[in-house]
Please model this.
Amino acid sequence: MATAREVAYGGFWIRALAIFTDSAILLVAALIVMAGTSFLGETGATIGAVVLFLGYLLYFPVMQSSERQATVGKALLGLKVAHAGAGERIAFLRAFGRELGKIVSGAVFCIGYIIAAFT
Model:
């Protein structure tokens, strides 16, 4: 059992399962938004695209910087996102920067994720 000072980091595969869970949740939400806005024609498509873009952009930073310190997928698996020092929750801007870093890691053939899986 980890003490207050001892930190147990989540491994790559458990975090991959959490992202898979979050992706499934976002997919269901996207389907609901698309179905709801499809009846509004071209205007609905534009509104749906904006809602989906903002939803995908903000889901992870908002959830990870919340009091829960986790997305739904991470919370289901008992993971938290915490500041390296005392385990406090991270600020929204730090969480947003992490998401931008994920884009960079995945941009070139997912090299960042492949390296993380095997190191």
User: Anything to note?
Assistant: Helices lie at 12-37, 41-64, 72-76, 92-107, 111-118. The chain has a mean pLDDT of 88. The longest helix spans residues 12-37.
